[in-house]
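quick one before i forget lol
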Amino acid sequence: MNVNDINAYVQQAREIIGDRSQSEIAYDDSVVAHVSLGMGIKRAIRAANQEHPAEALKPGPEHWPDLAARYDYILQHKAILKTLGMRE
């Protein structure tokens, strides 16, 4: 993979994930950590809500599929960055 491909991937990932504050990043990292431990998305979000109440999500039933996809994407993104030896 060349540098241009890596830069294009990182830019696309930033657009997909969106701009986040430090506290939002910490919340997302918490959800991803819990999912990485084998928790389902609902349980992972409940755990992150307890750890980061200011960022707590209160999704309706219609939001769960999108949240699961978002956090799966972030999990995969973190794995790719780790493989590339990069940080967010």
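fyi The radius of gyration is 14 Å.
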